[in-house]
Write a structure and sequence with these properties.
Elements: H1 3-7, H2 20-23, E1 40-44, E2 50-54, H3 55-61, H4 63-71, E3 82-83, H5 89-101, H6 111-121, H7 124-136, H8 143-153, H9 156-168, H10 170-174, H11 184-192, H12 201-214, H13 216-219, H14 223-227, H15 237-244, H16 248-251, H17 254-268, E4 285-290, E5 296-300, E6 305-308, E7 319-324, E8 327-332, E9 337-341, E10 346-349, E11 361-365, E12 368-372, E13 386-390, E14 395-399, E15 410-414, E16 417-421, E17 434-437, E18 444-446, E19 458-462, E20 465-469, E21 479-482, E22 489-492, E23 500-506, E24 509-515, E25 524-529, E26 535-541, E27 548-554
Parallel strand pairs: 1-3
Antiparallel strand pairs: 1-2, 4-5, 4-27, 5-6, 7-8, 8-9, 9-10, 11-12, 12-13, 13-14, 15-16, 16-17, 17-18, 19-20, 20-21, 21-22, 23-24, 24-25, 25-26
Helix pairs in contact: 3-4, 6-7, 7-9, 8-9, 15-17
């Protein structure tokens, strides 16, 4: 069959037959196809037009046609068109042309049609073209289509590109008429990272409510989860009372109603509020303590807000600290213990430890404070002893001693155990040793040792998983993660901020106090980094941190 013969078939788009791969080359005097014409089939669109194409090329480039011909072997002897009704005709023509030329004429107007065609026809080559084009053309006009395309196909490249655009243009997106079309995953992502571009909390709340009200029957159950990510206490009290507390969706949900009432409580109790009328702490916040406790500062990395606490003049010497609920407990090397109540903004002296110890490990577990090891002030040697403090009873009790003496070690609580990790022995040698105790059983047991010896390391617990990084005598920036079973450590390759001096986990984020690029040793900053290996660009310069020597985390007033 010649190209002319094919062109005479009723309904065929003859313009498509001009393709050299279909009509044969100039070397064929009779115009016969180079590829056997029995290999040619016809693809029909929903308008009834037919387009010839080589079956072998269709099967090579399209998963759809491979599956089709595997199911319909009789098609080899038939010239009945294969109708593709789920693809727009112009996109179908270009997809067929793509198998010969490897080229597409993609624009922002036809990208959606090409993407849909690529998914229907299972043409990976066209899909890769669409993704590459979409990633490089994210703007306010294309964002919503690209986001829906990313969410429906789970394309990680498109998901990342649309997330980054949304972070940088959150306020613009909130006022867009299609804002309610974004997926819940992205909305949560934006609410949790809105510190990238500070926006009044009233606007944040209004965006959440408009998103819920778009399909209230299907979305109202998401309101508590979303409202927890809005700093309601930073919204003016009149708007809280008249608009938010009067919103039917809020009133009908107990958790939402409680969130609003707690925000109102913060406004009404001025002695618990900062100068701008908001609560001392809005959610989990970093509490930084200066040497000798002459200064104490809370910092909310979500909003950038700071709150200075009252001073205490009764403390001297070095210390370690940890938090239980709303209180931060400071343990001095002279046995002294002080409590900073972040809710009442007050200090008080607590019961003293049973022994004096310098550079011990400290953590909180089950509402109690645990202290282990350290250097005995009288002998200058590391000790094995351990004790536990009950804040409710203001009472210290001795617990079994560790197997080995150590100091400058990490103490961390996870999965019902308290872990003593690394540190220095009495030869001033860093160790890999890890021990753990189950408070109810009261026996220290050896656990899997770390892969590297570390002392003065930093340790955070996120989702019950222990991460250890930094410290002395460590030649690289590795992070070690204790496996869920506690049977071994995994080394993670993560870009850790340099010169870290303190760290804490707040909700789903890890924040560190570290040195900046400045040569000034006191020029410090706070950085966030992610334990999945993706480094955040978020940095908060805080030169005033040079005076602080500790870092802890205290719960919010909610």
């Amino acid at each position: 069959m010649s190209g002319e013969d094919i062109g005479n078939v009723n309904g065929i788009d003859s313009s498509f037959l001009g393709h050299p791969k279909v009509n044969g080359s100039s070397n064929d005097s009779d115009g016969e196809c180079n590829v056997c014409c029995s290999d040619i089939c016809f693809i029909g669109d929903y308008n009834g037009r037919y387009y010839p194409a080589h079956k072998s090329l269709l099967m090579e480039t399209s998963g759809y046609f491979r599956e089709y011909f595997a199911r319909n072997t009789a098609q080899e002897a038939s010239k009945e068109p294969i109708y593709i009704t789920d693809v727009e005709p112009p996109a179908l023509v270009q997809c067929l042309d793509f198998i010969y030329t490897g080229q597409l004429n993609i624009t922002t107007k036809n990208l959606k049609n090409f993407a849909e065609a690529a998914l229907v026809l299972k043409m990976d080559g066209i899909w890769d073209y669409c993704v590459a084009y979409g990633v490089s053309h994210v703007n306010i006009d294309t964002f919503f289509d690209l986001r829906m395309m990313a969410a429906s196909t789970f394309s990680q490249k498109l998901l990342d590109a649309t997330e980054m655009f949304a972070l940088c243009n959150f306020e613009t997106l909130m006022s867009h008429e299609e804002f309610a079309l974004i997926d819940k995953t992205l909305l949560l992502f934006l609410l949790e990272h809105k510190r990238i571009k500070m926006i009044p909390e009233r606007k944040i709340y209004e965006a959440v409510i408009s998103w819920i009200n778009f399909i209230p029957s299907k979305r109202r159950h998401h309101l508590p989860e979303l409202l927890r990510r809005v700093n309601l206490e930073q919204i003016p009290i009149d708007y809280l009372k008249d608009s938010i507390y009067g919103e039917l969706l809020v009133l009908e949900d107990t958790e939402c109603r409680n969130l609003v009432e707690e925000a109102l409580f913060c406004h009404l109790h001025t002695n618990l509020s900062a100068e701008d009328g908001s609560c001392v702490l809005t959610r989990n916040s970093m509490v930084m303590l200066s040497k000798n406790l002459q200064s104490a500062l809370s910092y909310d990395p979500w909003s950038g807000r700071r709150k200075t606490f009252r001073k205490t003049t009764e403390f001297e010497g070095s210390y370690v600290s940890c938090s239980v609920g709303r209180s931060v407990y400071v343990l001095g090397d002279d046995r002294s213990v002080f409590e900073l109540d972040t809710f009442a903004n007050s200090w008080r002296e607590m019961a003293k430890m049973s022994v004096d110890r310098s550079e011990p490990g400290v953590t909180a577990q089950g509402g109690a404070v645990y202290v282990t090891g350290g250097v005995a002030m009288a002998t200058g040697k590391g000790v094995r002893t351990a004790e536990r403090f009950d804040p409710a009873k203001n009472f210290w009790e001795k617990i079994p001693s560790m197997k080995k003496p150590r100091f400058r070690h990490c103490l961390a609580a996870s999965r019902g155990f308290v872990y003593a990790i690394g540190g220095l022995n009495n030869n001033n040698t860093p160790v890999k040793l890890v021990e753990r105790i189950a408070p109810k059983q009261g026996v220290w047991m050896n656990a899997a040792p770390m892969k590297k010896s570390r002392s003065s390391a930093l340790c955070v617990v996120k989702d019950e998983t222990i991460f250890v990084f930094g410290g002395t005598f460590v030649p690289d920036d590795s992070v070690e993660m204790l496996n869920a079973s506690g049977s071994g450590w995994t080394t993670l390759t993560i870009p850790i901020p340099k010169n870290c001096i303190a760290a804490c986990a707040i909700d789903d984020d890890v924040f560190v106090v570290c040195g900046s690029d400045s040569a000034n040793e006191k020029d410090l900053e706070i950085q966030e980094f992610r334990l999945d290996g993706e480094k955040s660009n978020w940095v908060e310069k805080m030169p005033e941190l040079g005076q602080f020597g500790g870092l802890s985390v205290a719960m919010s007033c909610t």
